[in-house]
Amino acid sequence: MSNLGDDFSQFDISKEEKDKLVAEVVRYILFKTHQNSGCPIKREELSQLVTKNYRHRSLPAYIINEAKAKLSTIFGYELRELQRSRPSSTNHSRLSQQSGVDAKSYVVTSQLPAEVYKKYVEDVNTSHLTGFTFVVISIVQLSGGKIAEDNLWHHLKRMGLHETDENHPVLGNVKQVLETLVQQRYLQKDKVSGPEGTTLFYELAERALDGTVSDRVKQYISQIVKKDDATVDIL
Amino acid sequence: MRRNVKKEKQTDKGDAAAEPVRAKVAGVARDESADVESNQPNQEEDVADRRVLRSKYLAVMTKINDARDEISNVDSNKFNIIINEVDNLHQQVSKPREQVADAEALLDLANTLATSVKSISCEGISLADFVNCLIREFGKSTRSLETQENEQISIDWKEIGVAVSPFFRTCKGICTMLGPMSNELKQRKPMVTRKRAVRPTDTTRPDEVDETGAEEKTDTDRNMAVMFEILRRKRQVKLESLILNRSSFAQTVENLFALSFLVKDGRAKIVVNGSGSHIVSPKNAPAASSIASGEAAYSHFVFRFDFKDWKVMMNAVPVGDELMPHREDSHPTLSQAEPAANSSGASTTTPIRKLSRNRGLILQESIVDDSPEPDDANKGPGIRRCRRKLN
Lengths: 235, 391
Known about the structure:
The structure holds two protein chains of two kinds. Chain A is an alpha+beta fold. Chain A has two domains: 106 residues, Arc Repressor Mutant, subunit A; 101 residues, Arc Repressor Mutant, subunit A (Orthogonal Bundle), CATH 1.10.10. The relative contact order of chain A is 0.09. Chain B is mainly α. Chain B has four domains: 104 residues; 29 residues, no CATH class; 111 residues, no CATH class; 59 residues, no CATH class. Helices cover 41% and strands 9% of the residues of chain B. Chain B is built from 13 helices and eight strands. In chain B, the strands form three sheets. A three-stranded antiparallel beta sheet of chain B has the order 3-5-4. A three-stranded antiparallel beta sheet of chain B has the order 6-7-8. Chain B has a two-stranded antiparallel ribbon with strand order 1-2. In chain B, a hairpin with a 5-residue loop joins strand 4 and strand 5. In chain B, helix 2 packs antiparallel against helix 4, helix 4 packs antiparallel against helix 5 and helix 8 packs across helix 10. The longest helix of chain B has 28 residues. Chain B starts with 6 loop residues before the first strand and ends with a strand. The chains are: A alpha+beta, B mainly alpha. Chains A and B meet through helix 2, helix 3, strand 3, helix 6 and helix 7 of A and helix 6 and helix 7 of B. Chain A: InterPro entries: MAGE (IPR037445), MAGE_WH1 (IPR041898), MAGE_WH2 (IPR041899), MHD_dom (IPR002190). Chain A: Pfam families: MAGE. Chain B: Component of the SMC5-SMC6 complex. Chain B: Pfam families: Nse4_C (PF08743).
């Protein structure tokens, strides 16, 4: 990759053209992340920004890598690549026709240390959604990484969230928020056919299975339960 | 625990129904003579019993689903209660359909326990424990776990979010007035190589067109001039008298058309007098300044006029009161076509000139060939075929 970084003359484009393309990709990533509430951006979309004017086959990969570096050095963002280990049953037919490269997508995460992030970056206006994300991921994780839809709602009901609730005072349409977690690739839907029809299962997807996220979630689950046990002991 | 598979004893008689042999859990078969009954009344009772049995199994499965947290709890006796209930129901099972219900109940029970075993990987924390802890830690209401299920609990989702946000480190992106543009893949046009045309060395100057013909007055302009002259002489005339042409409906419409232009230009005005008649009188056109300032304002109305109205107008206007003269040269088509229709001679070709209604410009010339064709000979003398030749 260093060769590519040092020499872009193989693409028959000037430094200015290269910088313009990188800037365009960075701009697109930043705006799209905001517009889509953190849902992954398909690699195909980023490639199109390049291929609409330039025909070199390996130019999009080079530009995306340059954009990755720019996002890291300037914004402190990490452009993380997601790739489904296996397609979910709900969109299996569509994805099976695509190649592995096409299935790739990108998400942006902060590279700041936890303390700095908490102090300066954390958005209080959307923290309720982060809280919901954590709770759902924890429930699925404690169920062994996969949980039936009715079982999930059984536990969420105990916390005052109902499947039919479209006007929750904090979360609004709860079912829609859960669907957003699927789009953001924290969860993955899976339909399983049984004797009594199809059952919908939720399982952890790439972003929830990510090493650091998974470990921290487990850690915090233990922390909550232990803290609670300690409180009970004192009482 | 051993479960016996129920078998159905087949009698030797072909038409006799098979009587079930029910085995107890211990494996001891019942006395068969007690079960042998008449077939007809027993069948209906059997169906009803089986339905009740299946509904009991359904109730057990619901109980397993609702008490899944308690079942896996070490201190709870719930598992023993449910498994005993399933065992008792199993003693009444006789047919495959009930065996399926029995198996499903056991499967549910096994799945519940399997899930609780999986949770050991997370330091032995069960889902129920975790949810209870969340409610205690972040629950807004002062509600103990013993309170009624229907009582509302509310979790402080923001507080949880603030606590866990560094785990996810999500980025919100950038919000500006311009969002990401729609990024649609444009279809590339296939490359077409063209020969470069050699530029001509000599330049030519286009001929200058004589525009004297453009200044010629149209029929409408002439009609307007004639009409305005009549108005200037008569000062006040009835609208019907002004536009009516008794011998031509088309020319009446043309007169109305000319009048509409005079009114539009501000050179004539139409008012309704006391008796309800439309009176037309001439006037000077307003100055450009008064039009711009809005002093001179136009008011419009729709004048309905068709062939029936023309007939009515002819009756309303006395003969000789028509003011606009009849224009002879307006429709040469009629005058030239008439001789062709009257002449019964051999092959005569009559050119027909089609003119626009009031512009006097030739749009199309055609020749009508009145010569009868050979195959038309048997059709009688009165029938002719016309061939139209376009120049």
